[in-house]
Each structure stands twice: as structure tokens, then as C-alpha cells.
Amino acid sequence: MKIILNQDISSLGEEGDVKVVTDGYARNFLIPKKLAVPFNKANLNMFEQKKMAIEKRKDTKRKDAMGIKERLAKEVLNISMPAGDKGKLFGAVTAATIVEELSKIGLTVEKKKVEIDGNSIKVTGNSTVKIKLYGGETAELKVVIEGVQVEGSKPEAKPKAKVEVKASTEEAVAEVAVAEEAVAEEAVAEEAAPEVSAEESVE
Fold first, then answer.
1. Beta-bridge partners for 138
2. CATH assignment of 72-149, among 3.40.50.11930, 3.10.430.100, 1.10.1330.10, 3.40.50.300
3. CA dist 91 to 15, 167, 173, 177, 200, Å?
4. What pTM does this model have?
5. Contact (CB, 8 A) for 71 and 131
6. Per-residue confidence (pLDDT) for residue 180, from 0 to 100
7. Average pLDDT over residues 50-54
């Protein structure tokens, strides 16, 4: 089905563009949501009358995109996240993270416009993120991930001397137990031995 776009759709085209899409996509989604209108003489004439206004809006969008691109080229986004002692993050920096951090400095970017190699950053250090802008422009943003050591994330090594003392103590206790057992056995043996009378010893 042939349609005319009422507004920009990133995956399809810009306002005023004539496109051919499936009937279902047009009738069930684009037209009901007023994202497009059917291609016919009346609608074509309407867009011809709006052509100058549409071109003016496009020019404004292009200028805005260039301004954002220039600003992003100068920005360095610093992000602190919990990480292990080898720089591996407990989590990851995703497109949503970038969007949230950019909003803090007054920049609004759609999550789907953010491109990260591997879809996320999982280690500390310097990275470059790409952001798609209007008119096919792409901006590059420097991102610095700083790891924050989490308390208790690194196990403490137990002193060797302490272990040796513990081992020595256990050995000493074992030796005492063996000695006590030997004394007890000797006492039992003495009690079990028959008594010899004085008369028997004389004979």
C-alpha cells in the first residue's frame, strides 16, 4: 500500500516521504496512529501546500543534529560503577545508562540511537560510544568508566603464622589426650592384677 508519512519514522522515512508498505502495517498501525495517510490526490495536494513548512522543519532538525554532534565531541562522560580488583564491573554500562547520564547534562537521546560495541561495557577504562542523529549524522562520545571498590569484594588473606599456631595447639591437645589415655589404661591394669599376701611371698 502506498502512503505519505505524517512524521519522521526512523525505520521508514521522514515527514512528507512517499513509501510503499504492507497493507496490514498501514491500516493497523501507521494510519490509525496518524503516522501516515493513504497516498491519493487530495493528500498529495495537502502535502504540496505544506512542503515549505516541512522543509523548514527538516532544516531545523539538521542544524540541531549538528549542534548535538559538536557538543558530544567535546564531552567526556564519567561513570562510576562497582568493580572488582581486576577492573571487571559488577554489572554493565548499557544504552540505558548512557541515556540516563546524558540527561544529567541536559541532552535527550533515544535509547535506540545509542550504539555500543557488544551492546554493553563490562570493564573499567576508556570507551567510545556512537550516537545516531538526524539526517544520517553520527556522533562519537568518549566514556570513562571508573571502578569503585566494593567493601568485602576482595577476600582477606589469613596470616600464615596464625594458622600454624592453631595447628600446633591442636597437636598439643592431641598429645595430652593420648598421654591421659595411657595413664588411664595403666591404672586399670594395676587394679586388675591379683594381690600377693605376705605368707605366699615367704614360701
1. 132
2. 3.10.430.100
3. 40, 41, 49, 53, 92
4. 0.62
5. no
6. 57
7. 92
Q: What is the domain partition of the chain in residue ranges?
A: 2-61, 72-149
Long-range contacts, stretch 37-41, CB < 8 angstroms, 24+ apart? 37/3, 37/4, 37/6, 38/1, 38/2, 38/3, 38/4, 39/2, 39/3, 39/4
What pLDDT, on the 0 to 100 scale, is given for residue 164?
A: 44
| pLDDT value at residue 172 | 53
What's at 77, amino acid-wise?
A: L
Packing angle, helices 51-74 and 41-49, rounded to 10 = 60
Is beta strand 18-20 parallel, antiparallel or unpaired with respect to 76-83?
A: unpaired
In the numeric block, the cell 545508562 is attached to 97
pLDDT of residue 145: 94
Longest dimension (CA), the chain: 148
User: Judging by beta carbons within 10 Å of its beta carbon (0-12, 13-18, 19+), is residue 115 exposed, middle or buried?
Assistant: middle
Which set of grid coordinates corresponds to residue 25? 502495517
Amino acid at 111: K
CA atoms within 13 A on the CB side of 126: 4
DSSP state of 26: I
pLDDT tens digits, 61-107 = 999 999 999 999 999 999 999 998 888 999 999 999 999 999 999 99
Q: Which of 15, 12, 14 is nearest to 25 (CA)?
A: 12
